Amino acid sequence: MAEHRLNVVVLAAGQGTRMRSRLPKVLHPLCGRSSLGHVLAAADALKPARTVVVLASDTLEQVRQHFGPRYNYVVQRERLGTGHAVLQAHPLLGLLPGDVLVLYGDTPLLRAETARALVEARRAQNASLALLSFRADPPTGYGRVLRDVAGNVLALVEERNATPEQRAITEANSGVMCFDGPWLWRHVHDIPLNTVKGEYYLTDLVSMAVAERGPGAVLALPAADAREAWGINDRAQLAAAEAVIHERIIADLFQAGVSITDPATTYVDADVVVGADTSLLPGTLLQGTTRIGSGCEIGPHTTIRNSTVGDGARVRYAVVEHATVQTGEDIGPFVHRTE
Fold first, then answer.
1. Of 139, 217, 329, 334, which alpha carbon lies 20 to 30 A from 19's?
2. Which of 18, 77, 160, 186 is catalytic?
């Protein structure tokens, strides 16, 4: 039904200067998948009607080549803030019905189920918008969520503008928002220019919605895991986020019936598939689009990249790249197989 249609806007036009890299910040990899790739995977899980990625002109071609024609790309030619960035998607989405979910290309820890809960909460309460908040003490650098005594969201206040009492608030804004689409496109043009920064902030829509509709116009949904709000601005933050994704992948493999002797020395990329009753021994590295069958023994000290391993195979002290290990085959030690 039209009212349940979802469109996604991913903001990915940030400069990323602190990465000290020629590679766009959103293309830096975490567990074999780029930061933007993790965000788009979460968006894809929601089955949106259309996904628009907002990019800077100098990163457009690199990102388009990385992901291909599956998504829609628009350029934010001047970096004039998040409100201005979302406005660039208006020509593609402004006439379409349904919700608009705004995500960020440098927040790869957001889970699809969290984004889905945000969309469903906005719909259930018929709010103009719902934002994902998180708890942190202290939430340094983030805007605070202001609520009334009944718990209704009143506004967001940026840290630099907050009073000492407001800075003590531990509920912060992640930036992820879900809007009633028609409401968003009617009001995004009215976001005022912040004269200090010379930018248009999407967060100003919170106070605009409350002024228009009163309590209940805006919903803040706290994330169950505050790490989902983490943004990546430098390589240290990239490594910290990758550690979280590694932790999640290992937990998912355990749930799928995979044995892992030493999770700390076992690395599995996000797009790898491992069958049940397979054992991963210390020093195992599974990369790319590798597929491991069931009942296998992989490792110790084995790297398998973009390869297929059949059921019941054993691969130890070996490197396998772009190759196939047959069902029941035993290879190693000290073998390098490529095809």
1. 139
2. 18
